[in-house]
Each structure stands twice: as structure tokens, then as C-alpha cells.
Amino acid sequence: MPRSARWSCRTAGVVASHGYPLIRISRWPVTKAPSGHDFIRTRAREALQVKKENGVALGKPRQTPDDVLARVVRERIEAKTAYTIARDLNTTLCRLPRVRAWSLATVRALLMREGVH
């Protein structure tokens, strides 16, 4: 008898109390144990929620100066593309804090963070 025929896995069509389907391996029903990832994910979300409620600032703070941010948002509202805004910022020497040039991705990320599309 081929090995695949002996150990074929089929779901039994029954869901156990923990929400995972029963799996039938050969003739013996076996339940799938809940993953530890579910527990860890839940604990991490709860911890972040508590920090948020306590007023802890989550995430990396913005390093772009306020005047540059206002300029980017204003130009996007004036219907300029993100590429054009990045090109204009590079020509007027508005450099980023890490001395790298503005790119399309940088401008898009800044606009998305501020809620302007």
C-alpha cells in the first residue's frame, strides 16, 4: 500500500470546542491544538491598548519639520503629484534629517501618515 494512502489527512467535518476542525488521520480522530501565536497576539494587543490608554506615544515620531510638512500637504492639495513634490523639495534643498534626498516613497508615506491622499 502506498504511504500516501495509509496516512491521508481528511477533516472530519466536526469543529471542536476550541474552534479548530477535527482532523482524521487514518482512523484516529485528532484535534488540532490551538497555536501559541494566538495567545501571544492577544497579549500583545492588550498590552498596547493599555499603553495607549495611559497616554504613551506609540510608534516612531515624525522627524520632518513642520514647515516642510505644511508645504508638502499644501502642494498635494493643489493637485501636484508626489513625484513632483519630491523633485521640488530636492531642488530647493529641503533635505531630510538623515541627509538623503526626497523620493516618491518618502512623500507618499508622509502624506499617508497625515491622512492626505
Q: Please summarize the sheet with the most strands.
A: 3 strands, antiparallel
* Quaternary assembly: single chain
Structural class: alpha+beta
Cα separation of the termini: 61 Å
Q: Which of globular, elongated, flat, extended, rod-shaped describes the shape? A: elongated
Strand content: 5-15%
Number of helices: 5
Give the tally of β-strands: 3
The portion of residues assigned to helices is 40-55%
Roughly what is the average pLDDT, rounded to an integer?
77
Rg, Å, rounded: 26 Å
User: Ranges with pLDDT <50 over ≥5 residues?
Assistant: 3-12
- Sequence of strands across the biggest β-sheet: 1-2-3
Report on this structure.
- Mean pLDDT is 77; it is low at 3-12.
- Among the domains are: 1-32, no CATH class; 66-114, no CATH class.
- It is 47% helix and 14% strand.
- The chain is of the alpha+beta class.
- The longest helix is centred in the middle third of the chain and has 18 residues, at 36-53.
- It is elongated and about 50 Å long.
- Strand 1 (9-15) and strand 2 (21-25) form a beta hairpin.
- A 3-stranded antiparallel β-sheet has the order 1-2-3, with no helix packed on it.
- It is built from 5 helices and 3 strands.
- Helix 3 (66-77) crosses helix 5 (104-114) and helix 4 (82-91) crosses helix 5 (104-114).
